[in-house]
Amino acid sequence: MWDIAGKALNTPVYQLLGGAVRDEVTVYANYWSLGLPREPEAYAEAAKATVAQGYRALKFYALDAPPAGDPLRRTLSLAQLRNVIELVSAVREAVGPEVELYIECGGKLDYYTALRLLNQLEPFDIGFVEEPIPPENMETMARLSARSRIPLASGERLYTAHDFRRILELQAVAVVQPDIVRTGGLLESKKIAAIADTYFTPVAPHNANSPISTTATLHFAVNTPNFMTLEYFVQDVEWRDALMSPPIRVVNGRISRPTGPGLGIELDAALLKRHSETVVDVR
After folding, report:
1. Is the entire prediction scored with pTM above 0.90?
2. What percent of the chain has pLDDT above 70?
3. What are 126-172's pLDDT values in tens digits?
4. Residue 84: how many CB atoms within 10 A of its CB?
5. DSSP 8-state assignment for residue 123
6. Residue from 263, 168, 175 nearest 222 by CA
7. Which CATH class is domain 14-233?
8. What are the residue boundaries of the structural domains of the chain, listed by start?
């Protein structure tokens, strides 16, 4: 609907939201470590290759899988903790001190394991750790945040401004991560960002979505003063860039402000039809 309104008025969506506060949107690379063996050398090489593409920030899931036969276990063994630290250390050494590193935990840990991990990650200057524990218990997240010197982030499993108000009131996170698809669109995301701004908290949108929703999030980012950085998947189906015109282009870790009316894109309907029954799992 925003795209239709913008095209009817011949103006970009971010103008309908109030105008642009920036010309470029900073992104961080995710999924660059997809499918890698859990070996420091493999992570180091992949990290260097991603930085060589121009990205200045990387996020990755560094946790080991739970022991076989115990999928609900939230406690990591000493060996698993050591492996996480070895991977993070290798990546930090490979990319140097000027590249931001973010660690994804997916809400997989219990409180004490998360605290132990956060303490061991301190030497690596981590930008934030995402969902070290499940996000449903915000009080426990606040307790963990109060004892961590590394900023915590959460938000992909929160859905309304009311959810985000609560996590901000508790000072449970330093970075909020609303997903424009899951929160119900641009207006609810703008409400969330405005609430976060009253707590001097930046917004780093979760974005495990299509290039269409990525483009919509770009308009949000262009318009939002306390926007921090945007998640961007560097691995996807091979026809992703052909889906819409113009395709999204990342240059030196940034995407330029969209310029066309509406979302500023046109879809390839024939390509969509060909792939409409294709189910792709990129995990």
Report:
1. yes
2. 95
3. 999 999 999 999 999 999 999 999 999 999 999 999 999 999 999 99
4. 20
5. G
6. 263
7. alpha beta
8. 14-233
